[in-house]
Amino acid sequence: MPFGTAVPGQAPAAAPRAEATVRRPALAGRRVRGVGRLPPHPAGRAAVTADTADRNLQQSTHLTVDAATRAALDSAEKDNQRVSVAVVDRNGNTLVTLRGNGAGPQSYPSAEEKAFTAVSWNAPTSELVKRLEQNPTSKDIPGTLFLAGGVPVSAKGAPVAGIGVAGAPSGDLDEKYAEAGVAALVG
């Protein structure tokens, strides 16, 4: 019986829901939570658009959040580190989180919390750790993690996003990989 067909005495059947929808071509070939491995995407990282005014083609050089996430993860993989990477928006909402192959289970939420902390204070979490001496109760704010590895992304001095990396043997390495993600975003 097709979906939506009414049966006397019963509510119409609902269409099956997809478990997850991913519309991020840059994630192709990566493990994504709840999705498994995505097939390679033929479009690549840059979109081609037509300029109808003069009929020329232009290749967009705007990097996406996915490109930043990939840059951070690739940087860690070059050093044979197994990490998770998270990107949050200005409000601390998670945009994407990727767990690299072999990354520990604690790295996933830690990356999100580092990104949240960095964007909340518009400062690298390694710097915020130093500030804890003056204000130790800051660490009690829910959702924050005061360990190196979170870096804000700023535009004109204002935070617009945060990138967090967790899972490397030291926070300094986590922060190095997060900086690679920021570099991909800001060029």
UniProtKB/TrEMBL annotation:
Region (Disordered): 1-21
InterPro entries recorded: GlcG_carb_metab_protein (IPR052517), PduO/GlcC-like (IPR005624), PduO/GlcC-like_sf (IPR038084)
Family annotation (Pfam families): HbpS-like
PANTHER family in the record: PROTEIN GLCG (PTHR34309:SF1), SLR1406 PROTEIN (PTHR34309)
Protein name: Heme-binding protein
Organism whose genome encodes this protein: Wenjunlia vitaminophila (Streptomyces vitaminophilus)
